[in-house]
Amino acid sequence: MKELDFDSLRTTRAIAPQKLAEIYANRKRRPLIDGDGKLFIVAADHPARGALGVRKEKMAMADRYDLLTRLATALSRPGVDGVLGTPDIIDDLALLGCLEGKVVVGSMNRGGLQGSSFEMDDRYTAYDVAGIVRDGLDFAKNLVRVNLADAGTVKTLEATAAAVDEAAASNLPIMLEPFISEWVDGRIKNDLSTDAVIKSVAIASGLGNSSAYSWMKLPVVPDMHRVMAATTLPTLLLGGDPAEGEEEKLFADWANALTLPGVRGLVVGRSLLYPAAGDLVSAIDAAAALVHPSL
Predict the structure, then answer these.
(1) Ordered structural domains, the chain, with CATH
(2) pTM attached to this predicted model
């Protein structure tokens, strides 16, 4: 695991917060699409929603120093193109010097806290487009859960359409992560049937006054070719959170889906950062090899 200077990070946060602006202003950037045209991005925007669990470990992501070390280690591996996170995590990684030459994705709507009564009213409480542009980040991301039985959905749709408008006006790529969702025993459950995913794609694709900069971030489901036939937008695959013993199948599903037209890569969080087998580097390298076979 990568060694990081957390003492310096804490000191800078306390006495020189203005240094962050300098770091972002001088950060080495790269083209969004480069080389083989594929992207492999590690994701860590879960904590801001209060979602700290990984498989059976409810507080797996609670130790911020451990999470940052895992992210920094992943970003140091060949084939890892970038990272997705909320401002707290992205700022930490910037202060640690981990964002140079990487694609940086700002996560926007985190207000629909996991397990809350207002989970479907998924307000924009993290990055906004202006903040992403200010810091010179490369990509925006939002979650678009559609629950036909919950009126909170329409507020999320309206706010997401506005974010798409702002991103297009700023020439900023924005990835939309849509789901058809429902309340089950007091909790939100995403419908991962193929037809539901296709329906979610149709709804999310029409948000905003321009689709010029819109991307999809989609789960891998059965008959994935039907899902990809439902959109012309560039698409990144969502990693998911596999149950114990399903990792091999998950990798096989990713490999198959990555061959479909329109699929541009993979965005994976907990399943790789906290692998069941415990070997972070091996898990990251195996996924990177799927996205970038020439590695």
Answers:
(1) 6-24+36-291 (3.20.20.70)
(2) 0.95
